[in-house]
Design goal:
heterodimer; A: 283 residues; mainly alpha; 14 helices; B: 746 residues; Cytochrome C Oxidase, Chain A; Four Helix Bundle (Hemerythrin (Met), subunit A); 2 domains; 69% helix
Chain lengths: 283, 746
């Protein structure tokens, strides 16, 4: 079978995923999200990537054949979909929701950086423990739980950095530390997987070849089990890390843009009082 | 810009005269300016020493089959040359520049921790002789500046040279980490009003970002050095293949430090260039945000490219490819900077002063070295030229043609500020041209030699076509460099005595250090000028036309909620966390890798260790309660809880000691096998940290007895608390990795 044939035939068309994505997109458009174009583009892009992650051949490959494919799927769910969805939420909606006091309290509890970081990174690490990883592959319900937990906790992770509300966001320097620490954690996990002995996730050692593509994968693509595991670890480590770097650069760009705006409208000489000029030089 | 008139107008008293003069004042000094100068002088002295080592190398290599020095002497020369230039020249010079300039550039009086600053300076001064003592103690280290295992292990290096290398670098590592902590806290906490983080002079911003790289990279070196020393002196097996250790692991660890290290060296150089080029083009820097942002990208990426030093080791195609891609990516942010500097020059009114000449040579030479560096990212090419003279040429183009040229620019630019006298422009131009010609002569031909197949670190070479002539050209160039260095030192000495008076701002520059006399008074500024932008002095000379009354908005400074002492301790435990991560990785790696020997499950007692753990965790609780007591003003409670913490910590240590004696009694020692080596190293260093924590707590207890604590909170108590909780948190991880994972999941 060729690659093109795989792409044509290996879609999952999982009904719950189709319904879920349509509901998400439909609900967004119905609530009036379409009025603000750049938000809408981001949100719909997020839904599209979500659909592709969960129903495209990537899903088939990842569920049966390739650890690295499954890794790509997870990276999309953790690092690409939530940021796009968050960027698509108009601040006005969140403001409206916050007026309900119970919602506001929930938001400030869940939106705390410690919570977001801990839950996001913790969930990622937990699901890579071999016992749990294999359980997700073996039982469909656990797998659904895994994916939902990734999505939910990653939204919480990205909230202090990309959330629509300014004062719920971290200041630039703490945000950079937050993201760097996350990159470090995912890099360490990636490094462990890259250099571990083959068979960390034994499920992939002998896949059940219903599609008849194992020769394609092993011989044409060269993805033997140990290379597959290594590539999976490397994907989490380096491209994963790059996503965090892009987020850091985004934070810096927003920081300097805001600062420049304030540079232009800063005060003049006449406002200078002696008390300010005699700057309290610290000892 | 007349600073003096501002001082007079405000009616501020004259700065206090220094109470002591002469040599003692310098030795006892806590003033960042004097300490910075101590760093710089140390760097210059070792530049000469390292340069002489280079001359010996070049003399030996000038002709084929030469016998100027013996092979072993040659090995010592290139090892000491590399080690000296990196650790005793470039690092002290760039850190020293930062220590001198950062407080001035942010309008502060001194660094946040003057005593730590002094400690750092003197550690450098003493680490040099410690390393060089090896020459008379049986031979200098001779296994290359990166001391690859197993050559650096016994039985291949039986003398003490490598041990002096380890100790010297360890001391220097501590000094550098201290400087980084100091920079971070200083820049976050001590900026003058109006000096927001986005207005920082680029030299200071680069130093700030650099400090984070230092915090994350130097502890990796320290951990690796500790492991190597344990191998050599205590019979450990970390990196000895014959007993199951991994020489490749040394390479991974070393380069995880070594690659960020080169960025640690170059980022301040980038900062210097970002200051010099705008001033001598009479234009503001183009793309300030891009230079600042790309610096963060470099810092981030620098930790993900280290294995490009190991393409020939056989890591496997997948790993090689990923590291190649990352290495190509890291060229992009640097390219962004080069672009911005070049565009700054475009359309500027360029003045070819000596600092500008060095800066422009930097642009060309560093770019060239950067391009050859990216060529190494093409793995097949790397396989051909790795460890050849092509590599030597590359590294010298970036390190010397880049960094050292930038350091020269810095000297010519800031010497007037430091001493009040201008360096001679005539001598400066001689310095520059001797260096420019000499440098390119020495190192350009080495690209060709490398492509012709000449390996690095060879004592001599056969008389192959062109090898002799190119090597001779290279040696001649080295002598030009030597002459240029002599001119430089002569310039420093002569201009210090008889140079033209500089005044406050001889270059008409715009950053705050130029708003104070040359040399600055002890407190740096009598008055800090108002800061409304990235070029405070330019803004003062060009006030805005409209007079909108915008309140004191121009004077705002971002408030930082966290205290200076806490911030410093957090930075410190960040670096210690990296140290422990490396030791834990070593433990984990050897636990995973197949090896014979002691099995953790059979000799460890997780239950007993668990009880011991509870004591330590309880001590965290009592420490927290101590803080609560102080908050309520209950000083007896405070003392009681500190004492409880000490007792619980001591019980933990006692429990550890009992476990160790039991293991040693069963002949499970650090030298027995990899389990022993990794176990005792990890738990040993943790125990050491607990012990140091107990000393700190005893100090607190003593202070408490003398009534030194005032409610509701004490920075000292907070800071020791943070350290103590960190030590406990590390133990939780160590316990999980050693006892839970090893024993229960087996």
């Amino acid at each position: 079978m060729t690659v093109w044939q795989v792409i044509q035939r290996a879609w999952t068309w999982e009904p719950s995923v189709i319904v879920g994505c349509l509901a998400l997109a439909g609900g967004y458009l119905a609530a009036g999200g379409a009025r603000r174009t750049h938000h809408a583009v981001a949100f719909i892009a997020g839904v599209i990537v979500l659909f592709l992650a969960l129903d495209s051949p990537l899903d088939t490959l990842g569920d049966t054949y390739l650890f690295s494919a499954h890794m790509v799927q997870h990276l999309l769910l953790i690092l690409i979909v939530p940021p796009l969805l968050l960027l698509g939420v108009p601040p006005a909606w969140v403001e409206r929701a916050r007026r309900v006091s119970r919602v506001r309290r929930l938001m400030s509890a869940l939106g705390a950086p410690r919570v977001g970081w801990g839950l996001g990174i913790g969930t990622m690490v937990l699901w890579h423990v071999p016992v749990l990883y294999t359980a997700a592959l073996a039982h469909g319900s656990v797998h659904v739980l895994e994916h939902l937990s990734f999505l939910a906790t990653s939204v919480l992770f990205w909230w202090p950095v990309l959330g629509p509300i300014d004062d719920a966001r971290l200041a630039p320097l703490p945000a950079i530390l937050y993201l760097t620490a996350a990159a470090l954690a995912s890099s360490i996990l990636g490094i462990v997987i890259t250099f571990a002995q083959v068979g960390l996730y034994p499920f992939y050692l002998l896949p059940v070849d219903r599609l008849g593509i194992e020769p394609l994968i092993r011989n044409v693509w060269g993805l033997s089990p140990d290379v597959d595991q290594e590539v999976g670890g490397l994907l989490m480590w380096i491209p994963g890390g790059l996503v965090y770097l892009c987020a850091i650069l985004g934070v810096m760009s927003r920081w300097y843009r805001t600062a420049e705006h304030e540079e232009r409208s800063s005060g003049s000489d006449d406002d200078r009082r002696d008390g300010d000029v005699l700057a309290p030089v610290k000892g | 810009m007349n600073h003096a008139s501002m001082a007079v107008a405000a009616g501020v008293a004259e700065p206090r005269e220094r109470e002591t003069r002469g040599l003692y004042a310098w030795i006892a000094s806590l003033d960042h300016k004097q300490l910075g100068i101590i760093y710089l002088i140390t760097g210059i002295i070792f530049l000469i020493v390292g340069g002489m080592e280079a001359l010996v190398i070049r003399m030996q290599l000038a002709t084929p089959r030469n016998t100027f020095v013996s092979p072993d002497t040659f090995n010592q020369m290139f090892t000491m040359h590399g080690t000296t230039m990196i650790f005793l020249v470039v690092i002290p010079l760039v850190i020293g520049l930062g220590i001198y300039l950062v407080p001035l550039q942010i309008g502060a009086r001194d660094m946040a921790y003057p005593r730590l600053n002094a400690l750092g300076a003197w550690l450098v001064v003493l680490a040099g002789p410690l390393l060089y003592y090896s020459f008379i103690a049986g031979g200098a280290p001779n296994a290359g500046w990166f001391s690859y295992a197993p050559l650096s292990e016994r039985p291949y290096s039986m003398g003490t040279g490598i041990d002096y290398w380890i100790l010297g670098l360890f001391v220097l590592g501590i000094s550098t980490i201290g400087a980084a902590i100091n920079f971070i806290v200083t820049i976050i906490k001590l900026r003058a009003p109006g000096m927001t983080m986005t207005r920082l002079p680029l030299f200071t911003w680069m130093t700030f970002v650099n400090s984070f790289i230092i915090l994350a990279a130097l502890p990796v070196l320290n951990a690796s050095l500790a492991m190597l020393l344990i191998d050599r002196q205590l019979g450990g097996h970390f990196f000895t293949p014959q007993s199951g250790g991994s020489a490749i692991l040394w390479q991974h660890f070393f380069w995880s430090f070594g690659h960020p290290e080169v960025y640690i060296m170059v980022l301040p150089a980038f900062g210097v260039i970002s200051e010099v080029i705008p001033v001598f083009s009479r234009k503001a820097i183009f793309g300030y945000e891009f230079i600042a942002g790309s610096t963060v990208a470099i810092a981030f990426l620098s930790f993900s490219v280290w294995a490009h030093h190991m393409f020939v080791v056989g890591l496997g195609r997948a790993a090689d490819i990923f590291f190649a891609i990352a290495s190509m990516l890291i060229a992009i942010p640097t390219g962004v900077k080069i672009l911005n500097w070049s565009v700054t020059l475009w359309g500027g009114a360029i003045r070819f002063t000596t600092p500008m000449l060095f800066a422009m040579a930097f642009l060309v030479q560093f770019t060239f070295g950067g391009i050859t560096g990216v060529s190494f990212a093409a793995i097949p090419l790397d396989w051909q030229v790795e460890d050849s003279y092509y590599l030597v040429a590359h590294l010298h183009y970036v390190a010397v043609g880049g960094i050292v040229f930038a350091v020269f620019a810095a000297f010519y630019y800031w010497f007037p500020k430091m001493t009040g006298r201008m360096l001679s422009e005539t001598l400066g131009k001689w310095n520059f041209w001797l260096w420019f010609v000499g440098f390119n002569l020495t190192f350009f031909v080495q690209h060709i030699l490398g492509l012709l197949g000449m390996p690095r670190r060879v004592w001599t070479y056969p008389d192959l076509p062109h090898w002799g002539s190119y090597n001779m050209i290279s040696t001649v160039g080295a002598y030009l460099l030597a002459a240029g260095t002599l001119v430089f030192v002569y310039n420093l000495i002569v201009s210090f005595r008889r140079g033209a008076p500089a005044g406050d701002n001889p270059w008409h520059a715009w950053t705050l250090e130029w708003a104070t006399p040359s040399p600055p008074p002890e407190e740096n500024f009598t008055l800090v000028p108002p800061i409304r932008g990235r070029r405070p002095l330019w803004d003062l000379a060009h006030p805005p036309a409209e007079r909108a009354s915008a309140g004191a908005r121009g004077q705002r400074r971002e408030a930082s909620a966290i205290g200076g002492a806490e911030l410093g301790m957090l930075a410190f435990i960040g670096s210690e966390a990296v140290f422990f991560v490396i030791l834990i990785i070593a433990y984990g790696y050897y636990h995973e890798a197949a090896h014979t020997g002691t099995v953790a499950a059979r000799v460890l007692d997780p239950a007993r260790a668990g009880v011991n753990t509870l004591f330590l965790l309880a001590s965290s609780g009592t420490m927290w309660l101590a803080g609560k007591s102080l908050a309520r003003g209950n000083t007896t409670g405070l003392l009681r809880w500190i004492a409880a913490t000490i007792v619980l910590g001591a019980v933990f240590l006692f429990g550890q000691a009992r476990e160790w004696t039991a293991l040693i009694g069963r002949n499970v020692t650090i030298s027995r096998d990899l389990f022993g080596t990794t176990f005792f190293t990890l738990t040993g260093f943790h125990g050491l940290h607990v012990f140091l924590g107990l000393l700190l707590l005893l100090m607190l207890f003593g202070l408490g007895l003398r009534g030194q604590f005032k409610a509701p909170r004490s920075a000292g108590l907070e800071v020791v608390g943070i350290y103590w909780h960190f030590v406990d948190a590390v133990w939780i991880v160590v316990y999980s990795v050693i006892y839970l994972w090893s024993v229960l999941v087996r």
